[in-house]
Write a structure and sequence with these properties.
The longest helix has 18 residues, at about 25-45. It is elongated and about 60 Å long. It is mainly alpha-helical. It contains five helices and two strands, in the order E-E-H-H-H-H-H. It has a two-stranded antiparallel sheet.
Length: about 150
Protein backbone atom coordinates (compact mmCIF):
# COMPACT_ATOMS: atom_id res chain seq x y z
CA UNK A 1 0.00 0.00 0.00
CA UNK A 2 1.39 3.34 -1.03
CA UNK A 3 0.98 6.73 0.53
CA UNK A 4 -2.03 8.66 -0.64
CA UNK A 5 -1.23 11.82 -2.57
CA UNK A 6 -3.57 14.52 -3.81
CA UNK A 7 -4.05 14.97 -7.53
CA UNK A 8 -5.03 18.12 -9.34
CA UNK A 9 -8.70 18.90 -9.27
CA UNK A 10 -10.54 17.17 -12.07
CA UNK A 11 -14.12 18.10 -12.78
CA UNK A 12 -14.45 20.35 -9.75
CA UNK A 13 -13.51 17.77 -7.11
CA UNK A 14 -10.18 16.66 -5.75
CA UNK A 15 -9.19 13.06 -6.31
CA UNK A 16 -6.51 10.90 -4.73
CA UNK A 17 -4.50 8.03 -6.07
CA UNK A 18 -2.08 5.50 -4.69
CA UNK A 19 1.47 6.70 -5.15
CA UNK A 20 3.43 4.27 -7.29
CA UNK A 21 6.85 5.48 -6.23
CA UNK A 22 9.65 3.09 -5.46
CA UNK A 23 9.84 2.08 -1.83
CA UNK A 24 13.20 2.43 -0.20
CA UNK A 25 14.62 0.20 2.43
CA UNK A 26 14.87 1.94 5.83
CA UNK A 27 18.63 1.29 5.79
CA UNK A 28 18.92 3.11 2.44
CA UNK A 29 17.01 6.07 3.84
CA UNK A 30 19.27 6.07 6.90
CA UNK A 31 22.40 6.18 4.71
CA UNK A 32 20.95 8.99 2.56
CA UNK A 33 20.08 11.00 5.67
CA UNK A 34 23.62 10.45 6.97
CA UNK A 35 25.13 11.82 3.74
CA UNK A 36 22.75 14.78 3.70
CA UNK A 37 23.90 15.36 7.27
CA UNK A 38 27.52 15.62 6.11
CA UNK A 39 26.60 18.49 3.78
CA UNK A 40 24.30 20.08 6.35
CA UNK A 41 26.92 19.94 9.11
CA UNK A 42 29.49 21.74 6.95
CA UNK A 43 27.34 24.12 4.86
CA UNK A 44 23.91 24.08 6.51
CA UNK A 45 24.08 27.56 8.05
CA UNK A 46 25.24 29.22 4.82
CA UNK A 47 23.17 30.60 1.98
CA UNK A 48 23.80 28.96 -1.37
CA UNK A 49 25.60 32.07 -2.68
CA UNK A 50 27.91 32.07 0.36
CA UNK A 51 29.19 28.55 -0.33
CA UNK A 52 32.39 28.99 -2.32
CA UNK A 53 33.96 26.46 -4.65
CA UNK A 54 37.33 26.35 -2.76
CA UNK A 55 35.43 25.49 0.44
CA UNK A 56 33.58 22.67 -1.32
CA UNK A 57 36.85 21.36 -2.80
CA UNK A 58 38.49 21.39 0.63
CA UNK A 59 35.49 19.53 2.04
CA UNK A 60 35.63 16.93 -0.77
CA UNK A 61 39.39 16.53 -0.39
CA UNK A 62 38.92 15.64 3.27
CA UNK A 63 37.08 12.52 2.06
CA UNK A 64 39.84 11.86 -0.48
CA UNK A 65 42.44 12.02 2.31
CA UNK A 66 40.51 9.32 4.16
CA UNK A 67 40.27 7.21 1.00
CA UNK A 68 36.48 7.52 0.93
CA UNK A 69 36.05 8.30 -2.76
CA UNK A 70 32.61 6.70 -3.09
CA UNK A 71 31.32 8.67 -0.09
CA UNK A 72 32.89 11.83 -1.53
CA UNK A 73 31.10 11.34 -4.85
CA UNK A 74 27.75 10.66 -3.21
CA UNK A 75 28.07 13.62 -0.83
CA UNK A 76 29.02 15.88 -3.77
CA UNK A 77 25.99 14.65 -5.70
CA UNK A 78 23.69 15.37 -2.76
CA UNK A 79 25.21 18.86 -2.37
CA UNK A 80 24.62 19.50 -6.07
CA UNK A 81 20.99 18.39 -5.80
CA UNK A 82 20.41 20.58 -2.74
CA UNK A 83 21.89 23.63 -4.50
CA UNK A 84 19.80 22.95 -7.62
CA UNK A 85 16.68 22.83 -5.47
CA UNK A 86 17.67 26.01 -3.61
CA UNK A 87 18.25 27.97 -6.85
CA UNK A 88 14.99 29.91 -6.74
CA UNK A 89 16.60 32.90 -8.50
CA UNK A 90 17.48 30.72 -11.48
CA UNK A 91 21.06 31.96 -11.67
CA UNK A 92 22.48 28.41 -11.94
CA UNK A 93 25.17 28.95 -9.29
CA UNK A 94 26.14 25.57 -7.87
CA UNK A 95 29.55 25.19 -6.18
CA UNK A 96 29.15 21.38 -6.10
CA UNK A 97 28.86 21.08 -9.90
CA UNK A 98 31.67 19.99 -12.25
CA UNK A 99 34.37 19.24 -9.69
CA UNK A 100 35.59 16.07 -11.40
CA UNK A 101 38.62 17.71 -13.02
CA UNK A 102 39.82 18.94 -9.65
CA UNK A 103 39.41 15.74 -7.65
CA UNK A 104 41.02 12.31 -7.67
CA UNK A 105 39.28 10.01 -10.14
CA UNK A 106 37.21 7.29 -8.51
CA UNK A 107 38.12 4.28 -10.63
CA UNK A 108 36.35 1.14 -9.55
CA UNK A 109 37.13 -2.42 -10.55
CA UNK A 110 34.43 -3.84 -12.81
CA UNK A 111 32.71 -6.86 -11.32
CA UNK A 112 31.02 -8.72 -14.15
CA UNK A 113 27.87 -10.60 -13.32
CA UNK A 114 26.59 -13.92 -14.52
CA UNK A 115 25.77 -13.29 -18.17
CA UNK A 116 25.97 -16.63 -19.93
CA UNK A 117 22.66 -18.57 -19.88
CA UNK A 118 24.39 -21.85 -18.93
CA UNK A 119 26.08 -20.14 -15.96
CA UNK A 120 22.81 -18.61 -14.80
CA UNK A 121 21.15 -22.04 -15.01
CA UNK A 122 24.02 -23.59 -13.05
CA UNK A 123 23.79 -20.98 -10.30
CA UNK A 124 20.01 -21.40 -9.92
CA UNK A 125 20.36 -25.20 -9.82
CA UNK A 126 22.95 -24.86 -7.08
CA UNK A 127 20.75 -22.47 -5.15
CA UNK A 128 17.63 -24.62 -5.45
CA UNK A 129 19.41 -27.80 -4.31
CA UNK A 130 18.86 -28.93 -0.70
CA UNK A 131 20.84 -26.78 1.69
CA UNK A 132 23.25 -29.00 3.52
CA UNK A 133 26.29 -27.49 5.10
CA UNK A 134 28.55 -28.86 2.36
CA UNK A 135 26.13 -27.74 -0.40
CA UNK A 136 26.06 -24.22 1.04
CA UNK A 137 29.86 -24.00 0.90
CA UNK A 138 29.96 -25.33 -2.68
CA UNK A 139 27.31 -22.79 -3.76
CA UNK A 140 29.10 -19.88 -2.14
CA UNK A 141 32.35 -20.91 -3.79
CA UNK A 142 30.67 -21.43 -7.18
CA UNK A 143 28.98 -18.01 -7.32
CA UNK A 144 32.18 -15.99 -7.81
CA UNK A 145 33.40 -18.48 -10.41
CA UNK A 146 30.19 -18.22 -12.38
CA UNK A 147 30.20 -14.44 -12.23
CA UNK A 148 33.77 -14.16 -13.52
CA UNK A 149 33.07 -15.75 -16.90
Amino acid sequence: MGRRVAREEEGGKSQTRQESSRWRDPKTIEVLELRVGYVKDRFGKLHRQDIKRPDVLAFMRSYEAEGKLETRDRVRSIGEQICNYADVEGDGYNPFRNLNGQMIANISTPRPGVTEPRDVTRVFKLISAPWTRARCLVTLLALPCASMR
